[in-house]
Amino acid sequence: MKYLNLLLLLQPVLAAHCPPTGPLLPPPSLASLPDSAGLHDRLNALLTSKTSSWNTSTNSFSVAITSLNDTIFEHHYTAPVRGEGGVAKVDSDTTYRIMSITKVFNALTLLLHAPYSLDTPVTKYIPELQGSKDYADVTLRMLTDQSAGMPRDGYAFDLYNAQGQQLIEAGFPIPDNKSIPSCDAVGMKTCSRATFFENLLQNRLSWLPGDKAGYSDQAFTLLGMAMENITGKPFAQLLRDSITTPLDMPTTGFNAPIRSRGIIPTGPGGVFWDFDIGNFNATAGLYSTPNELLKFVRAILNHILLSPANTREWMRPSRFAGSYTMGVGAPWEIFRLSHLTPDNRPVDIYTKSGSLPGYASYLVLIPEFNIGGAINVSGDDGDDAAFDLLDAVTSIAVPALDSLARVQAKETYAGKYTGQCDGLNCTASDTSSLELVVDSGPGLHVVSWVNNGKSVLNILAANKGAKTMDIEARLYPVGDGDRWRLAVERKHHVGGDTIRRPSEACSMWFQIDKMRYASLPVDEFVFRLSEGNAISVTNPGLRAKLTKEQGHGGR
């Protein structure tokens, strides 16, 4: 529990920091989830909460979390009231419908079959769209990152299907018969391809292509069709050959497994267990299990299917969704959570939600800590339950993981590093040293840096027109071996995520590789580790190698 003790001892920082995005310390090594007992307690508390917005008698769920290597947390709950014929007890091999998590599989399948540019107009691959002015500028990339402006659901959730009579009584007009959906909705047949496109093309785009984020199920239906035209293979086969077979995910697919292997919701949602959603399979049709979803998460985190560079390119926001607190990717729903760590920095939580009457789900990845997970719910209050479970996971896991990362970084890197000059008549004033601590701020805090007897921090402060006491220097990992980069900022710079004028903005990214001396970077530090502990650090620009003092573990 020492990582929790450190968290309690750390004092709040006085200034808003301006770190880079991504990991600010090396991700912690994990044998289990830190504070797993606290997360179990929080999840159990949801079942007895009197303020819960969902019925614990009818909603079953699974929460599973994985590191790079293995499952590190599981919590399953089997509601007493369930649909007939399903599992008697939920576990990690129980089958759920995962709905729009399918979009992540869809996007990855596209990336794995992309000898073409993602900026190619979709009209090139779907003949029914050729000649449409609306779709002439819609690209494959826009479809993946929800910026195409596509109509959302077509006939699938038309209000008339569910509550037409009530809406007419409330003043809505009586529609003509040809406007009433007759396919692609619950209890109806699947629309023919011709009918699907007839409905699609009679509607204008919701937003202009490439402009705003706007959620669309039909966008991923088009992606599935485009990939079929590009490869000449059915989308289900493409996904199977590209992802589920290589990753040994036999249950994950578009066909409902036998009922006894699944968790069946009671109430209206029960009809969706084996309901074929036809044209919407490529956007929301998959079934899977918590175990298999964790295999998928590990494959992403370990770059098994995509190269590291392509994975990093994929795991990023493409635009904001009306607030800096949420970004949209391809097809990631990215929450930027602050105030969960001592430095109050934003931590990016990459998710993809899924929702259908009777089921709700989240695929979750936190790249900063090299973990991810799956949240699956079966029940007619699934959306509320899934959000509560996601809140619980992030509010417990992020602080605990951040604290563990600080403990491990302190043990590995914190301390005093010293070196002597190369001359024959060296004096104490010629020595060089670097002192690093792990405090409540981000990264490694450089509290002292001397080269040939002179303070480097004094020079850095002078270059900023500031006093040494008014600046702060911190090291951040590059992610490539043990290379780190230096960032220097004023202590009382406003920064942060709420500013009143441009001059207050966080602009640390301008500084990277800005300090070079005789061709080599002064803002780069390369550590050498032995048995998991730093033994020396090299600064290329200063041509300095400093050795860590024995028994000096920093503060």
Describe what this molecule looks like in 3D:
This protein has 555 residues and is α+β, with helices and mostly antiparallel strands. Among the domains are: 110-230, Methane Monooxygenase Hydroxylase, Chain G, domain 1; 413-548, no CATH class. The protein contains 13 helices and 21 strands. The chain has an eight-stranded antiparallel β-sheet with strand order 2-1-10-9-8-7-6-5, with helices on both faces. Strands 11-12-13-15-16-19-20-21 form an eight-stranded antiparallel β-barrel. Strand 15 and strand 16 form a beta hairpin. Helix 2 (36-48) packs antiparallel against helix 12 (382-412) and helix 3 (102-112) packs parallel to helix 7. The protein starts with a helix and ends in a 7-residue tail after the last strand.
Tell me the layout of helices and strands.
Blueprint: H1 2-9, H2 36-48, E1 60-66, E2 71-77, E3 96-99, H3 102-112, H4 140-144, H5 159-169, H6 193-201, H7 218-231, H8 235-244, H9 281-284, E4 286-288, H10 290-301, H11 308-314, E5 319-323, E6 326-328, E7 333-337, E8 347-356, E9 359-366, E10 371-378, H12 382-412, E11 415-419, E12 432-437, E13 444-451, E14 454-455, H13 456-463, E15 471-477, E16 483-490, E17 516-517, E18 520-521, E19 524-530, E20 533-539, E21 544-548
Antiparallel strand pairs: 1-2, 1-10, 3-4, 5-6, 6-7, 7-8, 8-9, 9-10, 11-12, 11-21, 12-13, 13-14, 13-15, 15-16, 16-19, 17-18, 19-20, 20-21
Helix pairs in contact: 1-12, 2-12, 3-7, 3-8
